[in-house]
Amino acid sequence: MFAIYTRELKSYFLTPIGYIFCGMFLVVSGLIFSQTTLMLATPSTSSLGEYFLYMMAIFAVLLPLLTMKSFSEDRKSRTDQILLTSPVSILGIVLGKYLAALTVFAATFVANSFNFVLLFMYGTPNAASIFMNIFGIFLLGAAFLAVGVFLSSLTENQLIAAVSAMGVNAAMLLISFIADGIENTFWRTVFKWFSVVDRFEPFTNQMLDISAIIYYISLAAIAIFLTTRVIEKRRWA
Amino acid sequence: MVEITDVRKSYGNKHAVNGISFEVKEGEILGFLGPNGAGKSTTLNIITGYLSADSGSVKIDGTDILEEPLKAKKDIGFLPEIPPLYVEMTVLEYLNFVYDLKGCKLPRKQHLKEICEVVKIWDVGNRLIKNLSKGYRQRVGIAQALIGNPKVLIFDEPTIGLDPRQIIEIRNLIKMLGREHTIILSTHILPEVQAVCDRIVVINKGEIVANEKTEDLINAVDGSRKLVAKIVGPEDEVLKALRSLGGVKTAEVLGKRDTDSISYMIESQERVDIRKPLFALLSGRNWPLIGLEGMELSLEDIFMRLVGKEKDKEVGKKARKGVK
User: Fold this and answer.
1) Nearest residue, CB atoms, B84 vs list A79, A236, A237
2) Helices and strands per DSSP (H, E), number in chain A
3) Is the pLDDT of residue B297 over 70?
4) Are A87 and B73 within 8 A, CB to CB?
5) Which label site among B112, B192, B284, B297 has the fewest CB atoms less than 10 Å from its CB?
6) What whole-number distance in Å separates Cα of residue A151 and Cα of residue A58?
7) Tens digits of per-residue pLDDT, B13-56?
8) Residue B95: which H helix or E strand, with range?
9) In this structure, are residues A32 and A51 in contact, taking their beta carbons and an 8 Å threshold?
10) Is A73 an interface residue toward B (CB < 8 Å)?
11) Which chain A residues contact residue B69 at CB under 8 A?
12) Do B144 and A82 touch (CB under 8 A)?
């Protein structure tokens, strides 16, 4: 698993995709950050909540860039043959690829934290709120990545993998707004339950909501489990 | 070393592999032969655990590939039809990755250097794979299969798309590897098998049509052997002597290309080697033998006959069904 992890991580930066992702992430995040906090905020309030809401939407579009080639490229270039005929378990292969994507995401996110450092230099932001938000949105990103890995295992075409991942991510975000428009309480509760945005709320209120953490982690775990099933099933096709 | 028992695999309605069983003994080079689309690659993919069979079992050194895949896969080095190369890496980066992937325990630098020298890619070690020619890529593919020194090597059409010199090099390499490894070599190029393999399994339409030692297969299809002998001597007398030699079926003049020698085509009876008596005869009469060549049936002929036979059978079956 470690061999696959290292190779994937390297390959992000042997091809332009790693640089494109990091660059886009930092530029877009920087722009939104300066708009929502430095430009618009009044001295007494900071609009970090808005920043994180925007970032969710950005994640939905950007994170599929990291996962679109995870399995689709291997399948197209037939390099999956060396992975699947080597003494490595399928879960090991999937986790290796997933963790590599997660590492690139996390590293970029750490670099992105420079934005928050600025806040501390020029103001007195609520540190707890910032940390909870970061923690929450990282979990959300981790779930998006797992979904992306899963979708890339379904196709040989990177573009299809990327676009479908963007679609699914967007749907997971928008389900919250759809839920708001539903009159029936039962269905509204069900939709809200699945909504990644509503699950994020406790973090913005500086609450460590265990059920939300479990929700994001299980979302990722289910996507990874499904990926192993897809690959396993292909051997029997 | 490799045991394949009644392996079946279908894609939808199409039976790609239909009940194949064979065994490869330790140290043997097995030629796995068949026309395009016969099910060769499917079978190899099943042996290596890339695909799963619908039924039947594959055992590598006694370990079932489905029950203990990690253990069984450690013993296999596989070169698929399209070498599984990460083209954005350099050769050495790639081989180091495979080394880690296979969890190899041999001393890294020395092991990789040895392999690179065997397949002659040491000089391109730091080049990107995407900039290499097809011949070099194929060799990187072979190098990848050799990492970890697995007991069984499986090559799926290793010489396809190479130039004649490269083909000979790769063949010699496989012969050399055969001294220490058990090898399954799939191909549809027949001289390749004749040159390299100890035993041949021929498949057609997912079924085995022959499984014999290379020479036996040649003899089995056509027992009699033809020789072309270049002999210096009086034509009539030589011809008469040849025809009266024990074991000779027919003898005739093939042509006179050189000025003083004449070529004769000699057909011996089934399973009789006439080369020794022939030599005794000629040396006794003091007729110099300046050339002797076997006109064995080439595998092409054999293959056509084996596959052709199947066709005849099928035609027969259909005809019989029609009568009923």
Assistant:
1) A79
2) 12, 0
3) no
4) yes
5) B284
6) 19
7) 888 888 899 999 988 999 988 877 788 889 999 999 898 888 89
8) helix B91-101
9) yes
10) no
11) 87
12) yes
**Cβ neighbours of B62 (radius 10 Å):** 11
Where does the pLDDT of residue B296 fall: very low under 50, low under 70, confident under 90, or very high at 90 and above? low
User: DSSP string of B148-183?
Assistant: T--SEEEEESTTTT--HHHHHHHHHHHHHHTTTSEE
Closest CA of chain B from A72, distance in Å: 14
The answer to pTM > 0.90 is no
ipTM for the predicted complex comes to 0.87
B53: closest CA of chain A, how far (Å): 7
H or E segment at B236? helix B235-244
- How do residues B79-132 score in pLDDT, each as one tens digit? 998 999 999 999 999 999 999 999 888 999 999 999 999 888 899 989 999 999
Cα–Cα dist A124/A130, whole Å: 11
* Closest Cα in chain A to B86: A79
DSSP secondary-structure letter at B307? H
Task: Say how many CB pairs under 8 Å bridge A and B.
Answer: 72
Closest of A173, A150, A162 to residue A231, by C-alpha? A150
CA distance B79 to chain A (A): 9
Residue among B193, B131, B200, B132 at smallest CA distance from B158: B193
* Contact yes or no for B250/B266 (Cβ under 8 A): yes
Of A50, A54, A203, A42, the closest CA to residue A123 belongs to: A42
- In the block, which residue shows the tokens 């399954």? B184
Residues of B in contact with A87 (CB under 8 A): 69-71, 73-74, 102-103
CA-based nearest distance A39→chain B, Å: 43
Sign, Cα dihedral of A10, B116, B141, A232: negative
**Measured between CB atoms, does A19 come within 8 Å of chain B?**
no
Burial of A92-118, coded b for 16+ CB within 10 Å and e otherwise, reads bbbbbbbbbbbebbeebbeebeebbee
Q: Which of A2, A81, A86 sits opposite B80 (nearest CB)?
A: A81
User: What distance in Å separates the CA atoms of residue A138 and residue A140, rounded to the nearest whole number?
Assistant: 5
Q: Give the number of other CB atoms < 10 A from CB of residue A170.
A: 13
H or E element at residue A19: helix A17-33
Cα B148 off chain centre by: 24
Q: Quote the CA–CA distance of B94 and B99 in Å, as a whole number.
A: 9
Taking every pair of Cα atoms in chain B, the longest distance, rounded to a whole number of angstroms, is 72
